[in-house]
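Morning!

As promised:
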Amino acid sequence: MEKELSPEEGSQILRKMTKIKMQATRGKDDLKSNVELGRDLDLYIVSDVVGKGLPLLTPKGATIKRELERFITDEELKRGYEYTSTPIMAKSDLYKISGHWQHYKDDMFTLNVHGEDYALRPMTCPFQFVLFKRKPRTYKDLPKKYAELATLFRKEKSGELRGLTRLSQFTLADAHVLCTPEQIEEEFIKVMDLIKYTMKILGIEVWYRFSKWDPENKKGKYVDNPKAWEHTQKFMKKILDKMEVKYIEAEDEAAFYGPKLDLQYKDVYGKEDSLITLQIDFALPEKFDLKYTDKDGKEKLAMVIHRSSTGCTERTISYILEKTQGNLPLWLSPIQTKVMSMNEDVKDYALQINKKLLDTGIRSELDNRNESIGKKVKGAITEKAFYLITVGEQEMKENKIAVRKRDSKEIITMTLEEFREKINTEIFKKTL
Ligand SMILES: [Zn+2]
């Protein structure tokens, strides 16, 4: 007779099998996954008492997230986006207007409070549309670009929740560009330009996927308006071809309200996923009655581009972690400098150096333990500190520091002022 397995035993075997399968499909270089890097570099944990798909970022992990979000916030503000801050949940009334309740309810976390239905938000759009409608709009107000680092919630299949890539709760660098039909092409090009810029800064390599609706899919996945689907898809294809964007086409991968352009990548296991998406929306402006008064005095419907720029922050971090194998660029490194004393006599000097670096805003750590310098350096390299600074009696006498990069053997001696200028320039330039 076959032995019946307890749920724990079953999931243990499943975990083992998944691991074997993942190892089998893993690249030839045996790269670490973001889960392994997260653990080894102390960036995040997943706790059973908190729940699956809900990672807790450590101070180091939170530093990477903060720097990434600072970068995109500053860049978008420069490009004319306005930042909003909207609630993470709403009554079902809102989702009934947007169609989420009809098309997307199974993927949302719903709750009932005092007899009223609420849901944690899976998308930011309905909230920003309500903000847009707070006053009458004319063509002079457009384009209106609302951005938000939005906390979102989506129900994923339990088996798919993993590391920083598939989550129940995540942060999306989200935005909605509301514009006139005459402006849509120019705005689409501007969005593409922003995305290409962020990809370059982050060193991300992606390919494009044009995700279309499937007219045969009758399971209520899509807004029922075949004419509008055809029209919008043709329009989007025309812009992409004009911009000479190379893409593959995918049927039945659109959002329920419109076709998407997805930026695709593969993780270390070779699994494909979307990193960033942008959509032209024909359905929601009508549902939300997003009108403006045009030059001719007539009321017209605005068009909407839904877009991300750096994607879901957690997933983008997982991509960068896996690609660099934890060797993050200086501006994202949780430890930018590690100051290490050679011996007892220079501890105070090392302390002063570290303090001065911290005062300038450098993320610096001090290692003044009674250990050999070899051991300290090895530890700093394992932690992936970007610059290793050692100070001995010679350096103290000359009022200098000895600096090397974590991946180089070359040691350069310089004054603290020289080093601060160098490192601040590199951080500012976001050198990869
Ligand atoms: Zn949206």
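The radius of gyration is 25 Å.

Hope this helps with the figure draft.
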